[in-house]
Task: structure prediction
Amino acid sequence: MSTPDWVEPVARYVLEVGLRNTLKLSAIALVGSTLIGVTLGTLLTIRFLPTRALIRLYIEIWRGLPILVTIFIVYFALPAVSSALRFDAITAGAIALILWGSAQVAETTRGAVQSIPREQHEAASALGFGWVGRHAFVIMPQALRRLLPPLVGLLVNIIQNTTIVQIIGAPELLESAERQVERLTFEGEQHAIEIYGAIMVIFFCISFPLTRLSAYLERRLA
Amino acid sequence: MILGLLDPSFLGDVWSFARDNRDELVDALRRTLTVSAIAIAGASIIGLTLGAARAHRIPVVSQLAAVYVEVIRNTPILVQIFMLYFALPQIGIRLEAFTVAWLAVMIWGGAFNTENFRAGFEAVPTRYREAGAALGFKGIATFTNITLPIGGRIALPSSINTYISIVKNTSLMYVISYPEITTVVLQINALTLQTVEAFSTLAISYLLIVWSMSALIRILERHLALPEEAQ
Result:
């Protein structure tokens, strides 16, 4: 059985342009969300009202807004405030995903840090660690155990949510697929079901093992 | 520059923007809420039935439900919307934007809700069901009198979180030009170019809905906590 002629150029474009950008965007969003989220979540455990109120507001806003609305705010509203805040579609998408993802991570980190018993803080202080050293070398390594399963879950959500950046035209998987569907339609061929179906299969093959991994880690580290 | 957003006159600008476009905004918000309400009702029914089937390992239904849950949870909802609206016409199935709007979020929310209720029903301690059996309850009666009220309460917070996500996901209906709040605010923005006011109005609308739903979770968690957990 040979594949029809239209398949090869579509597959090449979707995998070389779309999949690459999706993976790049996911990696940037994951690293950014983790770094900012872990920092904010740790700071949230300090009993100082102004920082707590500010971080809480940050979390509630970016968790509360639909990601599409955050993307529109970054892509359309920020340039209207200042022309220095003009970003291309992929950067705007990455910023929006990091705002949303870091809010998720901050909330989980707060819980993970607070779950570490007081004695660990006291022991670290007794050894001469300051606040930063105590959190970086004693508390965080232990909190990370609890953080790992939700972080893998977050990665699945990030990967799926990168498709929303399609709406402002960033050439990730879904956008690359749409361009190919439209090109074929223009040439008089209808292959939307096959192409979008293939996109679903690609996402499933990436997400399913990760969801399983997250569930496995949760059972093992619980 | 960002501090300009904290200027009291800025809130006044947002308010007058909302007032100038009141009719369109109210209609759009009503569509967002209608679509969400239909989807939430549907997702509750799907979640309760399939969640019960999963928890009780009813043959065939349970396996089919598992496939449904995994496919929906592991593929992006935006691709699902594209499938329904842009791909199905290829085989002659043409759905209206309104139909796709509630159907897509209902199918999506139903999958997550199936997991919420499955987990809730499975968390009901076996001794409660044994107590039901001792009272002479048969299978269905045990479910409606014991598993459903207790497991449903356990599943409630996570299911409301799914309903919050349903409301947020209706914003994606922008891609099929269904005139819910996101689509309409972008249209108004294109006409008026009051970009900052437009997106502030949009963000405030969603935050009000989402924050009141989260507040509801906290209230319900207090009121519906199981006596054992409340101790």
Q: What stands out?
A: The longest helix of chain A spans residues 7-43. Chain A has one domain: 7-221. The mean pLDDT of chain A is 93.
